[in-house]
Amino acid sequence: MNRKAFSLIEISVVLIIISFIITIIVGAKSLISNANITRAISVTKNFMISEEFNRTNIGLWFETSMPNSFNYSSDNSDNIEIWKSLSISFNGSFHEASQVLSKWQPKYKKNVINGLPGIKFDGSNDFLLISNGKIYSKNPHTIFVVIKPDKTSSTRSFLAFNIKDTDNSNTECYFLNGSTGRIVHDDGDSTLFNGNDLKGRNSIISLVLTNSNISLYINGQFIETVLNSLKSADSLSIGQEYDKNLSRGNFWDGYIGEIMIYDKALSDTERSVVEAYLLKKWKILNE
Length: 287
Prior knowledge:
Blueprint: H1 2-49, E1 58-63, E2 82-88, E3 94-98, E4 107-113, E5 116-122, E6 128-130, E7 141-149, E8 156-162, E9 170-176, E10 183-186, E11 190-192, E12 203-209, E13 213-218, E14 221-227, E15 235-238, E16 241-242, E17 248-249, E18 253-262, H2 268-282
Helix pairs in contact: 1-2
């Protein structure tokens, strides 16, 4: 009887110790996560006040670490109804990327891109839309997107500029090709860029559009320049693209951490400054 009672006590002690260890591990992970976000906030704020930051030409800036990026304090797996831009947009107002239907809302996820949060799009019906006014006109512009695609075999769109036209509703769309994992630009004619397979990899995509061509950089490295013609748009989709007759499709399957859009074709120096900020913040190398 005494030995049996003693064994139960031993088991209880072991369970208490295991519970204590688990609590410490969970607490440590939470501390690390909070430290990563604090660091990202500091990097973002320092970039905002730096002399190199081109605050005049940035029109859209979405990111996941700043407290004012969302309309409420986001916790892990929370639905995202509104993603707020940190910058005043091209038409002089603050833009928001939104989704009013909960069944189509992507989710906030912690610790998904090198310890930082990202927005998870499920590849089925999640997307966010900016539709309050002209996003940009037929002018040169520059796009930066931090992505982590899931290891999918399907072609997915992470960013699409749209116009309400049943014949050509995509004026500028960016995909990840399902078979090659490479970036695709589609403005009516599809162009598959050179480059490595990005499926499952943290990547910073930079796109510089002039009046005649578009240049792709991945993690700060030049990939390729192809011909391009600029078109107007009146909405921006994050996580999907509109096909003819405004039907939705090619939903993004993976994470998006940050989007920055400038209303000019940045010079090599200007582009490198933004990429250096993103590489430092997201701790991305040529993975």
